[in-house]
Amino acid sequence: MKFIKIKTRALLPPKDDIYPILDLYLPKLHEGDVVLITSKILAIHQGRCLPIGNINKDDLIFRESERYIPRSKVPHQYVILTVKDYTLIPSSGIDESNANGHYILWPKNTVKLLKEIRAYLKKKNKIKNLALIATDSHTTPLRRGVNGISIGFYGMEPLYDYRGKKDIFGRKLKMTQTNIVDALSSMAVFLMGEGNERIPIVIIRGLGNIKFTAKDTYKKLVIPPSEDIYYPLLKSFRSKKNAKDNRNRGSKR
Fold first, then answer.
1. Is the confidence at residue 243, as pLDDT, over 60?
2. What is the DSSP string of 163-194?
3. For 113, which of 38, 51, 155, 246 is 20 to 30 Å away at the CA?
4. Dihedrals phi, psi of 57, to nearest 5 degrees
5. Which pTM was predicted?
6. All domains of the chain, ordered by start, with CATH?
7. Is the pLDDT score of 150 beyond 80?
8. Sign of CA dihedral 156, 95, 141, 68
C-alpha cells in the first residue's frame, strides 16, 4: 500500500477552481485508487468563503450547524460545539487558517460534489474503480490534538463487516464493523499537515479489502443520534428550532 502526497499551489479564497489543480498536479490514477481531498479546497472551489469582519462568527456557526452546545457551556469558552452532517465538530467546521482573511465553511452537498469529481477523474484516467473521500481535522473527546475524519465519500463501501466471522478462538463476532473511510482519513490528514505544507490531496494505492461501487453508500456509515450509544451525551446538544431565542451568541470571533 502506498500513500502518495500531492503538493499543489495554494487555492485562493473566496473562490478557486479545483479542476485545473487536479489536471496539473495529480499523477495518472490507477485502478483501485482512493483519492482523499481536504474539505477546505472543496469549499473554496464552491466559493463557500466569507470575508472576516462582515459577519459575526457565532452567528455564522449557528447558521451552519444542525445542533449545538453554546459557547458559555464549553470550558474556557473556546468554541461552540456543533453537530453537522452526522459529525461532532467544533464551530460547524468553519476554519480561519490558510484562509487569507476569510471564514471557510464546509462544502455543500459534499457527496454530490465528490461524485462529480470522481466521474471527471474516471473519464480522464480511463479507469473503472475509483473512490473519493473528503476529509477534515477534528478533535476527539478526552484526547489532545486533532486527527482526520471523513465528511463525505463516494465510490466505495465504507465498512468492513466482521459480523458472523470468528475471532482467533473461534468465537463468532456479533457487532464489529471496521470504519474504513475514517481510518483512511485519519492517516491522510496526518500526511496533509495543519500548517503551510500545501498538501491538500493524498492518493492511497494498493489498498486491499475495498469494495468499489457506483452507488451512494454514505448513509451506511452514519447513525441517527437517537440510536447512537453516545446518545446520553449527544442529547445535551440543543436543537436550533427550539433554542433560537435562547442561544448564547458570545462575544468572541
1. no
2. TT-B-TTSPBPSS-EEEHHHHHHHHHHHHH-S
3. 51
4. -65, -40
5. 0.92
6. 2-240 (3.30.1330.100)
7. yes
8. negative
